[in-house]
Write a structure and sequence with these properties.
This protein has helices at about 1-15, 20-25, 335-340, 370-380, 390-400, and strands at about 30, 45, 50, 60, 65, 70-75, 80-85, 90-100, 105, 110-120, 140-145, 155-165, 170, 175-185, 190-195, 200-205, 210-215, 220, 225, 240, 250-255, 260-265, 270, 275-280, 285, 295, 300, 315, 320-325, 345-350. The chain has a 22-stranded parallel β-sheet that branches. α3 links the parallel β29 (about 320-325) and β30. The protein has about 400 residues and is mostly beta strands. It has five helices and 30 strands. The radius of gyration is 26 Å and the shape is elongated. The structure holds 2-acetamido-2-deoxy-beta-D-glucopyranose (9 copies).
């Protein structure tokens, strides 16, 4: 700040025009409090960091093509438009936070941003990114008014978190690889998520999604949680593994998807942690024809007919199957413990009024007063650690992400 004031004074005293532009351009953090303040930077090819604290409604930062550090605008209730016709790259974080009037965000040639961190943009309805951002490491978009992510189309990303955007009805991106995590939660109830090219992901959680499509998904290296979604169907024909069997990490959980009728992955052969299906009141069919190994528990509770998983060879944790429908336990499921396929405790209960999960949680809303100590006790009596018990994994991750 002080350095910048000194530079500004020097600028005025010398009466220089473009001569001093190099010094001005290398200001560590350029701060503009009005559009007029930006005039000194328009000839700069690049800036280090730019902070906008504008008292003007319209801010145009055209001129520089690169900001090597951060572009930041926070807590501003005056600015309604932020534009640039020249900026192509932001080497640091593009932070927009608490901009209550911002309705126009237009960056004609922006393609590369290290991190996008946008929150509290209650009137920003869309992005005007003509070229489109195609490279970003981290993306967080929360509490905005945007209805689609058109303008951001990444091929790969480390982490992406899109939550609480009440108008967001579409996420459609060509992304192929998500190396750390994806979280989508609490957006518009009609949200359609289409990830046609996604083939590899680490942790992924989808919540409150109306439609989900991942036709190319082959590997989820971490956990894959599908929670409280409203879709009637979801499958992924090319998915072969979730998590890492060698480390017993990475669970597959379907919890509280109340319209879903079928849980079926034709080609999943390995789940590293737990495989849990709970509180999906309409699921009638569970089919995992190729599932061979599970590093944690298999924990299925609900209203389904006999689950189909004929290829099981090794279940390191417990087996818990409880259904309010009549299921056949004796022909297959009850034999797995004796055949040393299931290493933990084994339970299979047909036609029960109160199907419960492996850690003792009731899945029906009318009954069940399992205290946490009961749940803990039940879990340990199953001889499974918490990482392997689906509910704990889900709870842990959710508290971390939300
Ligand atoms: C913005 O305002 C919020 C709440 O008023 C405050 O917590 C936050 O620190 C402010 N951020 C900045 C960068 O001033
Ligand atoms: C995706 O990224 C991970 C981590 O960077 C890498 O190990 C994996 O091979 C990549 N997968 C594909 C299909 O590119
Ligand atoms: C994935 O989630 C698990 C459990 O919450 C966590 O321990 C792990 O660090 C996460 N992995 C990545 C790459 O974020
Ligand atoms: C994504 O997949 C579609 C077909 O599903 C294909 O037409 C397109 O070329 C793919 N895009 C990339 C970048 O691989
Ligand atoms: C799957 O769900 C989508 C909406 O989410 C619906 O349009 C489609 O008809 C459903 N497909 C089947 C086979 O039920
Ligand atoms: C599914 O996997 C097969 C075999 O690896 C591949 O040929 C096919 O293109 C994949 N489908 C999609 C939609 O990615
Ligand atoms: C895949 O997950 C395991 C944990 O099970 C982790 O050690 C490994 O680093 C992950 N792989 C990549 C490429 O992130
Ligand atoms: C079974 O289905 C009924 C209605 O179809 C639902 O009310 C109940 O919650 C379901 N039970 C479980 C355990 O999913
Ligand atoms: C299922 O729903 C009940 C009642 O809402 C809740 O107590 C329980 O924790 C849920 N189970 C899971 C596995 O989330």
């Amino acid at each position: 700040m002080l350095a910048q004031q000194l530079l500004l004074s020097a600028f005025v005293v010398l009466g220089a025009v473009a001569a001093d532009s190099t010094a001005v351009c290398s200001t560590a953090t350029a701060t503009i409090a009005a559009q007029a303040d930006f005039a000194q930077y328009t000839d700069c090819a690049s800036l280090k960091s730019l902070v906008i604290t504008s008292g003007d409604a319209e801010i145009d930062i055209s001129g520089p093509t690169i900001i090597t550090g951060d572009l930041t605008a926070t807590n501003n209730s005056v600015m309604n438009s932020l534009t640039s016709t020249s900026l192509a790259s932001i080497g640091g974080t593009f932070t927009l936070d608490g901009l209550t009037q911002l309705s126009t965000l237009q960056f004609d040639v922006l393609t590369t941003v290290d991190s996008i961190d946008w929150s509290g943009l209650p009137v920003l309805g869309s992005l005007t990114f003509s070229t489109g951002v195609s490279t970003a490491s981290n993306v967080l978009i929360t509490n905005t008014f945007i209805s689609s992510l058109d303008g951001i189309n990444l091929m790969t990303v480390d982490s992406i978190d899109i939550n609480n955007n009440n108008r967001l009805v579409e996420i459609d991106t060509q992304i192929t690889n998500i190396s750390t995590s994806l979280n989508i939660a609490s957006n518009n109830k009609a949200l359609v998520v289409s990830l046609p090219n996604l083939s590899w992901a680490n942790n992924m959680t989808f919540r409150d999604v109306y439609s989900l499509s991942t036709p190319s998904l082959a590997t989820v290296n971490g956990s894959f949680f599908l929670i409280d979604n409203t879709f009637t169907n979801y499958t992924s024909a090319n998915l072969t593994s979730v998590g890492n069997f060698a480390t017993s990490q990475g669970s597959l959980a379907f919890v509280g998807n109340t319209a879903l009728t079928t849980v079926s992955f034709a080609n999943v052969n390995s789940v590293g942690g737990a495989f849990q299906v709970a509180n999906n009141t309409a699921v009638a069919t569970i089919s995992m024809p190729e599932l061979t190994q599970v590093g944690g528990a298999i924990d299925l509770s609900g209203n389904f007919t006999t689950p189909y998983a004929p290829s099981l060879q090794n279940v390191v944790g417990a087996l818990n199957i409880q259904s309010s429908e009549t299921i056949d336990c004796s022909t297959y499921w009850d034999t797995l413990k004796d055949d040393d396929i299931v290493q933990g405790k084994s339970t299979c209960i047909s036609a029960t009024d109160d199907p419960t999960t492996a850690d003792g949680t009731s899945t029906s809303t009318s009954t069940g007063s399992s205290s946490s100590s009961t749940a803990e006790g039940a879990a340990s009596s199953y001889g499974i650690n918490h990482a392997a018990a689906g509910i704990s994994v889900v709870g842990g991750l959710l508290s971390m992400l939300l």
